[in-house]
């Protein structure tokens, strides 16, 4: 289950998640589409995403993550 699926499961919009994390909606969209790979997110940001989505296992963010465009 990737970021998009986890976000939708929690009933959050991209904007709501972005507000919780203190980032732009565009950054969330870029991560969800693979333009900004979740694997490249810092540990601090990955943990903040997990906290915002109430995810105990950060590996769930990597499951089904889209590949960067052009690959």
From TrEMBL:
GO molecular function: DNA binding
Alphabetized UniProt keyword annotations: DNA-binding
Domain annotation HTH cro/C1-type: ranges: 3-61
Pfam families membership: HTH_3 (PF01381)
Record's protein name: Helix-turn-helix motif containing protein
């Amino acid at each position: 289950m990737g970021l998009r699926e986890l976000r939708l499961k929690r009933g959050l919009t991209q904007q709501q998640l972005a507000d919780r994390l203190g980032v732009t909606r565009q950054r969330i969209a870029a991560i969800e589409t693979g333009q900004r790979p979740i694997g490249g997110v810092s540990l601090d940001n990955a943990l903040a995403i997990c906290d915002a989505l109430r995810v105990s296992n950060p590996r769930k963010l990597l499951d089904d993550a889209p590949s960067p465009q052009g690959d």
